[in-house]
Amino acid sequence: MIEKEVKLKVFSPSLESIKSKIMESGTKLLKVEYQEDMYFNSSWKDFRKSDEALRLRTIEISDTKTLELTYKGPKLSQTVKSREEITVTLDYKQLDNLIKILERLGFKQVINLKKKRETFLINNYYVSLDYVNDLGEFIEIEAINGTEKELQEFTKEFIKKYNIIAEQTLKSYLELILEKHVPE
User: How many separate domains does the chain show?
Assistant: First the structure.
């Protein structure tokens, strides 16, 4: 599957304020998730250089935990974050064994990232308000279908409607946290 999304680093207003305005407009909150991402790299292929990622994600919704293993391919666009993603969902009870398998195969944990994600469905877009530990507040807008141009137009309208001051970035949370803590 090819994922198409826009990521915004939000400066103002706060995500809580944006969330209130979205809900006042009648849009219902789809879900609240707590995510913990473990990113892995290998000794034979540097994912940082190849613009790929291998992520093991724990997702907690209410009291239920699930596990996802995701491969992310190199970015395909310079205007929105568009890349191949292959994900398998696994039983959370397998977390320790899966980490052991990855380590035995030569993968090394590089970084852990925690975030709270609140997701809305607005028109044909998932709008996620992300509170990312150590990075701040972000909005991710993901197209369910449609073109990059339509995604960019929706993003501009969304920013204008909610008076958001933000900066668009093509970088993943992994890239942002590595820049902050592990310079090349």
Answer: 1
Residue of 91, 84, 102, 47 lying closest to 68 (CA atoms)? 91
Which of the residues 34, 39, 71, 131 is marked catalytic? 39
Determine if the pTM surpasses 0.70. yes
Domain range spanning residue 111? 2-181
Question: In DSSP terms, which residues pair with 91 in a beta bridge?
Answer: 66
pLDDT in tens, 59-80: 999 999 999 999 999 988 777 7
- List the CATH number of the domain containing 147: 2.40.320.10
Please say if 39 is a catalytic residue. Answer: yes
